[in-house]
């Protein structure tokens, strides 16, 4: 098994190789709380399916899930509501457009977000979170993340959530557009409130790697063996991570790395190596399509070393 | 002078000819208050530059300005703020798209509504109405309409405004999109509040014809001779009425009728025959592009009779 | 009459004022034959409806019609085939897009060019030119231009036509797209051959001004008084010149100058001041939307002096 | 191993289950030669990596590769020219648009087809086929297919190629658009000639299954063990088959079936179950996105039975 060779030193060496790339990227500026990130940070953790853990770089810091939360809310909603209801509201096709794009909504008939990984689709999924109130929905989502990450103290960062809530104009635009055509049922301000908090859930690389490991194990808790996500839902989520998990660079990532992965503008990436391990990465310097520039490079190098592409 | 032949009977005859078309159209359904209109109503008034008045059809009823208000807010804002400021926020080009379209905003760089007659542009103009508060801005707008229409009791219809305020999801989507890119400065809910009230100003055909006469006279009050709108602003407004006043049928209207005109989904049309007369029409049955179906036909027949195309 | 003040000296003075703008523009590079034009040339001619003629600048040179030919082929086809046939193939709406755009074709249903002034529409009109063969169609078109310009020696420039024929890839793309959806009936290579020759017809400012005078007189020959273009067709052409004659700056031109006009990438502009005069301009330095930069400025200054806006 | 259960009878049973779906689809009408296909035909073959073969349905008939050829020309060109050259001309992202779409080309800057599975991208790949003449390029392509399919008599169908050549207006439109922006170097008519012949290569289900088996084996010939396609190229091709192999239903197919697959409008589908088997399907009745309706269902049922999704 190639994983035998994987250890803290190996991981650190690979991180050392990719650290210089961070200088070529830019920290997300449009959310004030994210703009304060340390651009040169690069950290990674690996959580193997048999429970071993490796870490390297500037690990230990927390960061917010941002778009990584899209795949977790999707998993929760799929298990709660079933494929039929979910896919009557949101499509399954990659769009080729930036995550914030609204034109495809206008050109689609009936109006339907292309997939749950672009903002329009993710907002429609958030609208479907289980719970009678937005407080209840948020609590359910955070509980879910805690279970997946194996940590009961995970919380959302109030400052980041507030900051995004104040400036989420594009997301409100998408929501009102969908409201007009009946794609969402809830109130726009409630969904924005919930979505910004969902995106602001704080996590560290190791916790993220553990969530990745759950997906690696087709939904099973790597410690207890319990089924946290149904097999079918885990499979669907991995599919979306491949076809549209890395923004409008997903196709390129599939070719160059080839594992299910989801990134966020905070600089986080969760990658899933089926039946082997989950990976959590943090590197806030982003490339021009919104992915952690060093994180992408690190995954490419790991794939060269450990040959984990599913293709 | 051909106007010599214009009188109440002539106008009534033409209205009789076009009344049957009303059955082929549909009353706007998306605003509950508009859906209650009497589909077969057709009314028209002509106000000549020398102050004579002709009326025919089911005149006397009031209706709301809806999109016709776009040209009045534009006139007010142009005279208050000047061309430079206005056109740094809103473009001058017809778009060929439906009035509610958002894609062109996404494809334009920098983000800028194509013109002040589509909803995006009209909302940006409303944001520029003079006044320190939304109440003051509304009062200024209503005062302005009163002066143009020569009637001090003009008011907005609270029911229609409320009804639209509840359902203006697309306009909120446009506003948040523009907010993201700095096209508007005010608060979205304030602008929506103001815009729905501006659209809900109630008027009758004769008052609308009188406003048309003001534009016919390059901005002069047809009774007092005072300059209500500057000549330059009146000229700009007439230009926009020709290039984009009749939704995405403006090009066809220019070819088939050929005078500056602005329509609204309430079924109103204001037409301007330069130096001759203004026309106010009400016919709530709309064609598939949102123009009064009988109103359009009436203007075509009037042009055949009175040869008023400017082309 | 303000025209009394118009004379060669006045025109020369205005040209002197706008000449410096030529340095801010660029000569069209994509057609090799056009790229050799003298960037600082500015010339203009005025042809009044009573037959007087004024000229200024570097007049006397010939240039090719390019897109100005679109309005002449439209006139010929409208008079030969009637509105119904023409407008079943081509629309009447300004599009807001660049003249070479293909997306609007894809988004329209059924497939139909928005108007006859964008390339797609102009190519569909060329397909309808009267004549049994492409040679006959071309001869008919050139005869028509000769009549309008009052000069029997007008010919097309073979070098320019050849040069464009070799490089008309975008126009072929538009034609094949329309061929797929039945918008055109003829062979693509025949239409390209014909269209490039139509665009390459050579003319000078004075001839162009005379054609403008024909439109000023609603289709009448300014010397003989014969009806060269039917009144209705002349009116339709003037309408299109206002709504879409100056590429995707037509709206702005209508506001800033306000007369029917058509420009070409050779740097020519034909402007029509109804019932007063036609204007022919040549200034090959173009602005970023394809209009003669000095020509546009000259028309703005002439409008300030002679107040000829129709709005 | 689940494949133990796979045999001719099992396959026939599954085909029997999906045959009724053929009545809900439609045979491609736009290519006359395809319109004559027998709508109710359903055939399938499986070629295991250890050389066993199973067949069912109306097998034995040949059909043309159509879009399935896109993945074979890509493989050949990637191995001949390398990733760098190929991806400087063609992108790696799924587009979400129909395969014939041209708008994305207009909106991309620089102009570049989104991926090699839509027509624009496939045509650009055909332009890169190795060989000094179009005859040589075609010969090389056919040789390549023969090797992959293990049959030296494979040829293209001249009638189908001629029929498509006459009617390939959209593809010519795409090619001229790309020619304008330097995406292709060859002559449009040469590329069309080559592309229509490439699409018209005739094959049967078993041959197609064998090609699938080559991809299953990461490029190895299942009989001789020689490397027909490099591992890297086979991996890239499988990735594109997942992200964009089933037209604009690729995302849905990935979720519902989950293996690399490529379909064609002839009704063929090649599917690849990594390290297990290749599948060749023929069912000319298509769904509204251009995929064999019974073929899709058959793959869904096979996945339920043999659990071959890679996700």
What does this structure look like?
Chains A, B, C, D: Pfam families: Glutaminase. Chains A, B, C, D: InterPro entries: Beta-lactam/transpept-like, Glutaminase. Four copies of one chain form a homotetramer. With 311 residues, chain A is α+β, with helices and mostly antiparallel strands. Chain A folds into two domains: 2-64 and 203-306, DD-peptidase/beta-lactamase superfamily (Beta-lactamase, 3-Layer(aba) Sandwich), CATH 3.40.710; 68-199, Probable Glutaminase Ybgj, Chain: A, domain 2 (Orthogonal Bundle), CATH 1.10.1500.10. In chain A, 47% of the residues lie in helices and 10% in strands. The first copy, chain A, contains 13 helices and seven strands. Chain A has helices at 8-18, 32-35, 68-89, 103-107, 119-126, 134-149, 158-167, 169-180, 188-199, 205-216, 231-244, 250-256, 293-306, and strands at residues 43-48, 53-57, 62-64, 202-204, 261-263, 268-273, 277-282. A five-stranded antiparallel β-sheet of chain A has the order 2-1-7-6-5. Chain A has a two-stranded antiparallel sheet with strand order 3-4. In chain A, a hairpin with a 3-residue loop joins strand 6 (268-273) and strand 7 (277-282). In chain A, helix 1 crosses helix 13. The longest helix of chain A is centred in the first third of the chain and has 22 residues, at 68-89.
